[in-house]
Hints:
Structural class: alpha+beta
Strand content: 5-15%
Mean pLDDT: 93
Number of domains: 4
CATH topology of the largest domain: Nucleotidyltransferase, domain 5
Shape: globular
Radius of gyration: 28 Å
Number of helices: 23
Helix content: 40-55%
CATH superfamily of the largest domain: Ribonuclease H-like superfamily/Ribonuclease H
CATH architecture of the largest domain: 2-Layer Sandwich
Amino acid sequence: MEVQFQFITDPEALEKACEEMSDAADLGFDVETTELDPYKGDLRLVQLSDGRRTKVIDLYAFRKFGGLATQTELAPLRKLLAAERPKKIAHNAKFDAKWTRHHLGVETGGLYDTYLASVLIGAGTGERRHGLADVVQFFLQKTLDKTEQVSDWGAEDLTQAQAEYAARDAAVMPELKAKMEERIAADGLRDVLKLENECVMPVAEMELNGFFLDAERWRQQLAVKEAEQAAAGKELQSMLAAGVAQASLFGTTEINLDSQQQVAAALSGLGIPMPASTSRWQLQPLAEKYPQIAKLLEYRAAAKAAGSFGENILEFIEPKTGRIHADFRQIGAPTGRFSCSNPNLQQIPHEDVYRRCFRAEEGNKLVVADYSQIELRILAEMSGDAAFIAAFESGADLHAATAARVFGVEPDAVTPDQRSFAKRLNFGVVYGIGAQRFARMTGLSDREAENALRRYFASYPQMDEWLRVRSKEVISSRAARTMSGRLAKIELDPADRASVGAAQRYARNMPIQGTSADILKRALRLLHDRIRETSARLVNIVHDEIVVECAAADAETTREILVDAMTRAGEEFIKKVPIKVDAAIADEWTK
DNA sequence: GTGAAGGGCCAC
DNA sequence: AAACGTGGCCCTTCAC
């Protein structure tokens, strides 16, 4: 693939090029950098292409004019990037948006991400990869050579091959987008792609913002957990010693307490009847009778804390900012949920000892807001169940209202036990729980659990019907959708009962979990547009929760903006049930 | 040595 | 040894 391009190294040429490109409807947009992390490396090239004319801008040539983020020589480029039109077509646009935001000081407008488009079209099948070369091959039947991708982009003089590679990646984007749009339309993915594209910039900024972690507090907490682990480990070793087959003449009876095999063998050696697995739910019932089991569970909890939530997380603090800049995958699950890694800020334990380490910096506040029972409200909306909707509309305690119906008592006569059963039913039904599992969970007999489920669905007949239709339709459609139109293709083998069951539970759960993700993403965009000129910064999201940091003086205003954005986003999708958002202003990430 | 797989467990 | 959905991280075990 041969691409003509202009290599730009001076302000006059840049201004002319930006003027030339400004009339295009779509511009391919790409950058080349010396590192993957914008806090660690240089932004070397910015490439723009309308498909015919391609500009490769060498930012090293502009360093002589001063800092890139503020210099006036780059103003034409900033203006072009900031504009809603032309659209900027990029593959994994979050990357390009982060680098240009951080190094050029500009928020890119009109982003269109061919990576996210490809993932949406893939609909969770995993049957093809979504790298640019893969996507270009699949949609355009053209082969892209990516060997220059990892070349030295910090070299004073770039090679011809590097410049051509850079130009070509940008030049292919408009054509790729045009081709993908046909498929997006045919698959009914227009709305959800718009939702995703509008969410890229908020996510890019969130990653740049990072979340402040008080390292001192974290270390103090960690020291406590490490001491607990050491103490529990020592006690457990001596309790197990008698059950360990003599290892050597030197008589060492120490075993690896992190090895299920060795621990299970030692416990068996003590005459303890061991279940097939050593997972907590299996061992818990044995803990009362056997102190060794109780000690093992104590050791495991401390080991988990010291391992997954230990020193490792401190290593993610970026020295330049003193904050944690985790990676958020915008379509982390086929349902549309985000995933998070390096580190995963969506799995920090609830306990205050951990959460209080994530806090606002001096002079700032956190605003923490989450949707109240959003998945159950979505289920009410999608199923249109009159009784379920009425329970939400009354504003009364949903779980108590459910208990009253299931147990056939007056709402104010519901016992705490009954409410607890109803709560677990309400949450379980979202996951497609079965009677057996519900029985294990609650301690009811299988018979009683079946009856409880039967009464539950009798109480909410339209919900029952909606869930049944999802189960039935997936057999032929092999697909499910959220309210935004997000698609999940579902594989199943009709001859295999387990596969059919799994597909049916997924087909019932995906529209609910995925619509929740749709709503959150819409909220992120609305929030982003309203906090742009304020002190507020998005710092974390956890499925139905948004955390914003702002100047202390702006906290009340920020809380109102956040609640309003989340509520409006919810109301765009949910019409029959009220949306409820709980929000708090705090110094720390606690509720 | 390195990496995949599986167990176990944290979040929503 | 979960027939309750979605993730990621740490650890051991085992194959290459």
